Amino acid sequence: MDQHQHSNPGKNKGHDDSVFSVPSISLLDDKYWPHIQRRYHLTDREIQVAKLVCRGLNNEDTAAILKIKHGTVKTHIRNIYRRVRVKNKIQMVLKFLDIATKSTAKSGTTSAIPIVEIKKTDKKTSVSSNIPKKE
After folding, report:
1. What angle, rounded to 10 degrees, do the helices at 59-66 and 44-54 form?
2. Is pLDDT larger for residue 38 or for residue 28?
3. What pLDDT sits at residue 17?
4. What is the pTM of this model?
5. pLDDT of residue 74
6. Domain count, the chain
7. For residue 40, is it within any domain?
8. What is the mean pLDDT of residues 11-36?
9. pLDDT tens for residues 55-111?
10. Selection from 110, 109, 130 nearest residue 118 by Cα
11. Which of 57, 90, 94, 134 could be disulfide-bonded to 61 (CB atoms 3.0-4.6 Å)?
């Protein structure tokens, strides 16, 4: 195995790139986000960032989709952590899932949190087209 293979495992010939890609599912349905936003007093932009983080996107990809700077994404994430009282992205996702689970239980539905398939977009239709730009 050469040095290039060690430094870039997802790009090697013979490796399955899907192992290193962003999952095409989301654990939180859109119906839970308004409740999360109200409960933690998150701004619209912070909810947009949280949704992308919960989909598995990193800060650079989130910045590109929202057309904002990487540092701005980090600031939004830091503000989300402070309001939600967590220290990392995994804790944030787990807390949001816990809220959604409790919300589902209170509503009397028997199903657990549905895993929602995220639709693939072609290069002409960007994910950011559904997300308002920062003014």
Report:
1. 130
2. 38
3. 57
4. 0.66
5. 98
6. 1
7. yes
8. 71
9. 999 999 999 999 999 999 999 999 999 999 999 999 999 999 998 888 776 766 545
10. 130
11. 57
Instruction: Yes or no: say if 113 and 29 are a contact pair by the CB < 8 Å rule.
Output: yes
User: And the tokens for 53?
Assistant: 């983080």
Q: Which tokens sit at 29?
A: 């349905």
Check which CATH number belongs to the domain holding 100 and give it.
Answer: 1.10.10.10
- Nearest-angstrom CA–CA distance, 133 and 127: 12
d(C-alpha 82, C-alpha 87), whole Å: 8
CA count, 13 A, side-chain hemisphere, 104: 17
In terms of residue numbers, what domain contains 57? Answer: 22-118
